[in-house]
Amino acid sequence: MSEAIALELKSPFEASLKDAGAGDGVQVSERRNLQMATVIARAGNSDIAARLKSAFGLALLPGPKRSAANDLAFVATGPRSWLALSEASGLTPKLREALGEAAAISDQSSGYAVLRLTGPKVRATLEKGIGVDLHPRAFQPGDAASTSCAHLGVIIWQIDAAPIYEIAVFRSLADSFAHWLQESAAEFGLRVVPPR
Amino acid sequence: MRIPCPFCGLRDSSEFVTIGEASMSRPPADAPEAQIFDYVYLRDNPAGVNQELWYHAQGCRSWLKVARDTRTHEIESAVLARGGAQ
């Protein structure tokens, strides 16, 4: 009766994300084993930055930015909300312990899927679906944006000037996003590289 | 039309939804019917600068108070509506 069910980690992109076109214009890899949580400041609470600083050494930047310390990253998604990401286990309990009643924390580890994109044609590909200006004069490493890509809600942030971008999409929309990415990057060549 | 979201920066209006004038405030439950009618149905619809509420649904999910010229779509200001639209 009480036989344990073995839960297996499945990639939302495994079946749908494939190489497309000829060339090496865009490389994409899935970020697997990511722990994620949304953090929303409770009304009247303004000491989240101080709590993050003392618990994780993380300096929370104001505005639409990605703030990171060691393995933990906070991507701002609104004036009082963030998507927290970490490869270490137990992210949600750690955040609950550090932030206490200052924030509402919801585990999203199985809610979002994250892709890392790079290559000489990555910006030319992304601008087919994203309205935000990703040119270096407007969007730089550390910048983040909540927006839509081909009508799919996405959170995008830039890691470095190579450029490397990461994009979080709702896991249930992973197939649709993979389809859009393949169609849009095909003219430059899309290469799927092993997950990191 | 693009809206200068105070958090996200300049974004296309397709990321937003609007519910119209920001100047409305809900009358008390025991207000006379005429006042409720005014609140539900009557709008000034000015030819000029209009104070409107816009929700950044595909962005930071904030309500904004936007001053928009209805003749030109020129936007004078956009601020977070948090703390009340008035």
Q: Could you write a compact summary of the structure shown?
A:
The complex is a heterodimer of chains A (196) and B (86). Chain A has 196 residues and is α+β, with helices and mostly antiparallel strands. Chain A has four helices and eleven strands.
Molecular structure report:
Chain A has 196 residues and is an alpha+beta fold. Chain A contains four helices and eleven strands; from the N terminus they run ββαβββαββαβββαβ. The termini of chain A are far apart. With 86 residues, chain B is mainly beta. Chain B has one domain: 2-Layer Sandwich (Folate-binding fold), CATH 3.30.2270.10. Chain B has one helix at residues 33-41, and strands spanning 2-5, 9-12, 17-21, 49-55, 63-69, 75-80. In chain B, a hairpin with a 3-residue loop joins strand 1 (2-5) and strand 2 (9-12). Chain A binds chain B through residues 63-64, 77-79, 81, 131-132, 145-148, 153, and chain B through 6-9, 11-12, 14-15, 58-62, 80, 82.
Write the topology of this structure.
The complex is a heterodimer of chains A (196) and B (86).
Chain A: E1 26-30, E2 35-41, H1 48-56, E3 66-69, E4 72-78, E5 81-86, H2 91-99, E6 103-107, E7 112-118, H3 122-126, E8 144-149, E9 152-160, E10 164-170, H4 174-185, E11 190-192
Parallel strand pairs in A: 1-11
Antiparallel strand pairs in A: 1-7, 2-5, 2-6, 3-4, 4-5, 7-10, 8-9, 9-10
Chain B: E1 2-5, E2 9-12, E3 17-21, H1 33-41, E4 49-55, E5 63-69, E6 75-80
Antiparallel strand pairs in B: 1-2, 3-4, 4-5, 5-6
